[in-house]
Write the structure tokens for this entry.
Amino acid sequence: MITTTRRDFLRYCTLGALGVWLDPFRLGLLQEALANPAGPVVIWLKGSSCDGCSISLLNRISDSAPKTVTEVLTDSINLIYHGNVMSFAGEPAVAGMRQAYEKGNYILVVEGGIPTAFDGHACIAYSYKGVETTFQDAVKQYAARASHVVCAGTCASWGGIPAAGPNPTKVVGVKELTGITTVNIAGCPANPDWLLWPIVQLLTGGPIVLDSMGRPVDLYQNQGTIHDKCPRRTNGLPAATDFGQDGRCLRDLGCRGPTTFSKCENCWNGKAGSGHWCIGVNAPCQGCVEPTFPGTSPFYVAA
Ligand code: SF4
Ligand code: SF4
């Protein structure tokens, strides 16, 4: 049971942790508050990423419970390790994660792609007793004893932007690295509600049916394409020839809506139907939930 006072404190700590201004006393209190010991153990590893999927989740606001990620952290899961919102840092944090590894049966969340060039040394996950562990080795190790592996975002799923050409560090996604089936919550960033979806399904015993690319069909394939549902498809206006032309189809500006399966029109910025999704704010869909992203998008050209 979390009291209102403790919940408010945790909210304060969660925000503070992002700014790295918690003192040791508050870190200790956060350790006490930051978990439901009876909830499923979650280990969250981050590699070649911008932290955008973590920020997306931490910004979650909803009209229905859980209304914020704080409620998830305190009531639903036992978050052992996460680079932004864990109470310890350095070796004590790694030690907690190693203990969870010994027990196994945790949920591993991976955010970011995995560099495989240079024997993985382009990305170090952590250091423990003077020995560095590459992100590549950490993902292999912790995926092996996880009950489920969830990829938070397109980078962890298939490489995403870190794997865009020329990809000198040879970034790949988790399944390509490990061969293990992953639940791919694609998006750049992943939508916060979708990130919680597999956790809810696991807690409630709901099914997680995946498409051929490892995405839950309920979140992607079964939603149809962005183009199917786009209000600009049938309004009779000529196609846009430049940005800022309200209401016009964006296909000539590179819109990937026709080949993108997602429910974005109802999911972004906290409110269903707010209009604050990419096309709603005059931006062509970039197909960020697809394994082909970023591909040859005019917005992501290799230097
Ligand atoms: S803006 Fe994109 S998704 Fe909408 S109708 Fe045009 S091509 Fe289809
Ligand atoms: S509308 Fe397209 S680019 Fe925007 S979040 Fe959805 S899939 Fe990604």
Confidence is low (pLDDT under 50) at residues 1-24. The pocket of iron/sulfur cluster (ligand 1) is lined by residues 226-227, 230, 232-233, 249-251, 255, 257-258, 279, 285 (CB under 6 Å).
